[in-house]
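From the shared-data thread, chain only:
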Amino acid sequence: MGKKGNAVKTSIALCIALCIALCIALCAVLVGASSLSCFAGSSFDTINSILSLNYATSGADPVGGVIVSNGEIYGATSMGGASGGGTVFAAPISGSPIQVLLSTAVPNEAAPDNLALEGSTLYGDATNGGPNELGQIYSLPTAGGTVGVLANLNATSGEGPESGLIVSGNTIYSTGSGGGSGGAGTVFSLPISGGTPTVLANFNGTNGLLPGRLVLSGNTLYGTAVFGGIGFQAGVGNSGDGVVFSASVNGTSATTLAMFNGSDGMNPTNLMLSGSTLYGCATDGAADSMGAIFSLPVAGGTPDVLASFDGTDGDYPDSLIQFGDELYGTTKFGGQYGDGVVFSLPLDGGTPTVLDTFTGANGADPIGPLTLVGDTLYGATEGGGTNNDGTVYSIIVPAPRMSVLLAIFFAYLIRRFSIRSNRPEVN
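Structure, as tokens:
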């Protein structure tokens, strides 16, 4: 039959593949799902409270979400524990037993804050730690033990670190919520072994106030400042609607990528990067003044509102993560009980879908960021649970939408059969 025969075989095979794919898609529609879970028989979209914290023992009011690694969960609390000043804790994914790694926080007993993990070492910030009570960066073995003080912050380096750390190679990157030459915060780097912080950017209010969590891509750091920018007034406290910025890891200043004006959201936080697009949460503003999810080119421009919240589907979005062509996140308030929700949103925007609602019993007031392991999200809530001291929770999310799965499936088939059709036929 030669090449003509191979072409016919290829067409038949592709038609069969198309029929199979359409059957799979129909199955997903009939069961009300947009994933292949109709075959797996697994359930999702339900918040599972893994553990409830206790002020007297494990600590209360967790901060900065949780880290999940090798079947272990790590987190920090801002109060409680043996000293009453907060804890760093660990627990298996099953939730029990909870091990307190640190109950006296850092040496001066300032409450620990966000954590980062590198190898077998946890790195964290303490907002009011150090001899100046202006903040401290510390390390702690995952098995517990001696706290290593890596840096004591001051008014020059930036003060009040409270938005987490990035560990990349031998360097730590973070932000000071205040201080610096402009008095409105800094971006700084620090050797992982400790030393003197290097200021990479200063904020003065007009270019941002109270910089937050960072995202690193190559040699560029991206972040948000909760206040400053449009509407900033010197001496008026937390004024301004917030900005998105970038800073070089070798630089000395920040570049403003976008300023919010209220109608497109305000008080941005928790950026994430996908390709050449930044996505983030505006915790306030937009259509119903309950926050929005936005996107922005890495080169800067005007924020594009992908979705705004109206209270029933959440209020005050505070975390965001990508899985396939969906965004998943949490709102701190809103939903049926007012205690927050877990939501999903197509990457190109639309109406948020509430996957489940926090009830108080399973947690209340979730905080970012989220951690994704496989198809499971892990996070923490500031309140709720058995003791109303906060929880660690998980929720299984649907597999990537059919559009992604089918695109991968057909790309594979086309490549495979095009190779076969070009082979000479052996008689």
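The CA atoms of residues 35 and 399 lie 5 Å apart.
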